[in-house]
Amino acid sequence: MTRSAAARTRFRRTLWPTAVGLVVVTTAIIGTLASQSASSAATEADGAITEHDGAVPDGVTVFDDEYPGVANVEPDLLEALRRAATDAADDGVEFSVNSGWRSAEYQSQLLREAVSEYGSEEEAARWVASPGTSAHVSGDAVDIGSFDATAWLSEHGAEYGLCQIYGNEPWHYELRPEAIDRGCPPVYADPTEDPRMQE
Predict the structure, then answer these.
(1) Class of the CATH-defined domain 51-197
(2) How far apart are CA 139 and CA 103, in angstroms?
(3) How confident is the model at residue 35 (pLDDT cuts 50, 70, 90)?
(4) 150-188: per-residue pLDDT in tens?
(5) Contacts of residue 128, Cβ cutoff 8 Å, sequence gap at least 6
(6) pLDDT tens readout for residues 78-87
(7) Where do the domains of the chain lie?
(8) Which one of 9, 106, 115, 130 has the minimum C-beta count within 10 Å?
(9) Sign of the torsion angle spanned by Cα atoms 73, 166, 89, 60
């Protein structure tokens, strides 16, 4: 075998494994990217609710504007909540937000889940409004987390125009500016008694 033939053979022996390795790595990268893209598209297509729909992670407060569930709350309501939260902090109470603004899609999902849980649309309506009537979809309601915070608002909320609306939802607060002078209006037993919930 000539020297040039031997060199070509050595070159092929080293090039071939390298080329095969590159093909394998490239195929793996393409497969991973395609899988991630398909997974992302499936998540969007299956209607998964995200922070963009108003879902908030645990520990979000009324001051956390980076979450649409807080940032999209009606400005006067948010301002009243922040004033109340600042004063409540002096008493060692923090206002976390379990839910604020919600997209219509998020509200629809919650309603479907409630129908499934409670067994009928009538019973579900005691807990979850339709997207067309929900004060959360319009940004006019906030569900406050922790017993301490709701207890504090129960005692002091009217001073800020913040009122509990439903007897069965002590966490659900809306802005009633007239409450500052006259106190909060009587609560409805549940949303089915609220005239706004009638479609």
Answers:
(1) alpha beta
(2) 9
(3) very low
(4) 999 999 999 999 999 999 999 999 999 999 999 999 999
(5) 107, 110, 111, 113, 114, 134, 191
(6) 999 999 999 9
(7) 1-46, 51-197
(8) 9
(9) negative
